[in-house]
Give the backbone structure.
Amino acid sequence: MITALAGGTGAAKLLRGLVALIAPADLTVIGNTGDDIELWGLHVSPDLDTVTYTLAGLIDEAKGWGVRDDTFHCLQGMAAFGEQTWFNLGDRDLATHLFRTESLRRGATLSAVTDAIRRSLGVRSRLLPMSDQPVRTKIRSTTGWLTFQEFFVKEKGQVEILEVAYEGADAALPAPGVLDAISHARAVLICPSNPVTSIGPILAVPGVVGALKETRAVVLALSPIVAGAAVSGPAGALMAARGLPVSPAGVARAYSEWLDVMVIDRRDQGLTPELLQFGVSPVVADTLMTDRQREVALARAVLEALG
Ligand code: FO1
């Protein structure tokens, strides 16, 4: 069993490459829910949906989120009523949020709903939310606290980051199966996701870091930072706000208590001595997944690094 801690787009691409090489049922994904948003009464779980849609072959490749070829008639209708529509919910995507919200209302856990959704969409890998309790990433800027989506989508990440918090983490429990998936894995992958707002919330759930420290599995991370910048999204600014160097070494430092191996891009191979000082074994590969072949090639490099 391989267990992967995953955020959104970058993680989903690596996982798509991985399930081309291993039996999909041998993969368990622990997904970030810190990005979740409540919109018009609907519970939206962007990172869980991006992983599910990608593994189901439904993802909108150009955007990296939402359903391919979706329409936005409902959103246009909401705009006509004067509603804010900076967070674009597509018509097909809405079915996922309606089903999730109604299931939760009927008393189902987020884990149960997430499992029902991935099975309905034909995804054979297991997808576990990090917690069934709400944990929400909040960003404090000069104008006050923002939800992650207000920061990332509404403000386009263009605001000063004074603080990052994982609201609710202390009261959250790992979702059923999360700790076992880490403890009993042959390998644990930390996907190339934002260390602060995608992997960070998962690590903030009590018990997860302990399980990563205790597991006999090899723990391997892929750096989301290449040549000093995030491949996509606001990871660089968020790492800097956390006082972490915006480099694979900064990522290694954030994970150093439990990380064994880190895959870095060829452009960063000069950093291998720094990784070694954190007790992390560096593996150099082409980590930019610009097409499907490169996703599989990177996944193959990961499997080879795992032995
Ligand atoms: N990202 C955007 O930049 N603009 C959007 O309007 C947007 C809508 C959206 C709807 C559903 C969904 O699952 C994801 C969506 N995202 C959008 C992406 C989302 O902000 C990110 O995928 C994660 O929160 C960060 O990984």
Q: What stands out?
A: The chain has one domain: 2-71+97-135+170-306.
